[in-house]
Specification:
Layout (H helix, E strand, L loop, with lengths): L1 H14 L5 E11 L5 E12 L2 E10 L9 E12 L7 E16 L2 E19 L2 E11 L9 E11 L1
Antiparallel strand pairs: 1-2, 1-8, 2-3, 3-4, 4-5, 5-6, 6-7, 7-8
């Protein structure tokens, strides 16, 4: 039993990196439901090998003429990613939950949201990467538009 315990401990030590990796992203993109509107935001995350965690805030502008509400989201997500970039590209998949605030005219709704998506972090030079991301958000039952889709590109700093 002692050998098995030592073997598992050694295997775990080999699987974990010597330090956690972290990154921050600032992004600009588009929400496409029900019309295309600008979205901007920031994210901060940390990861161990293939599992990472991220916190993100995003603000989507409204378009009253198209009956498209303004939307603010604050999400916490878990990422599954390759342990390192392959040919300068590190793909990832994520899922998470958080809160949202939707406003259109007199309508205002806030509640719980879940999000799923994926993308890639592409090394440009040194610790600077281009991040491309697509997400689908399922908003609470009082939301005018759900699900909502978002695409973005951002600058990512790895440290």
């Amino acid at each position: 039993m002692r050998i098995l315990t030592l073997g598992l401990a050694a295997l775990l030590a080999l699987c974990l990196p010597s330090r956690a990796l972290a990154d921050v992203t600032v992004f600009l993109g588009a929400s496409t439901s029900p019309s295309t509107r600008q979205v901007r935001g920031a994210a901060a995350g940390a990861g161990l090998l293939i599992i990472g965690f991220e916190f993100e805030y995003a603000d989507t502008t409204g378009d009253p003429a198209a009956a498209a509400p303004a939307l603010k989201t604050g999400m916490a997500s878990v990422l599954l990613q390759t342990p390192a970039a392959v040919m300068r590209v590190q793909p990832y998949f994520l899922t998470g939950a958080g809160i949202y605030q939707e406003d259109l005219g007199a309508h205002s709704d806030q509640g719980f949201a879940v999000g799923t998506g994926g993308g890639a972090k592409i090394t440009l030079f040194g610790p600077i990467r281009l991040r491309l991301d697509y997400r689908v958000f399922k908003l609470g039952s009082g939301a005018l538009i759900s699900p909502t889709h978002r695409f973005y590109a951002g600058l990512n700093l790895k440290f």
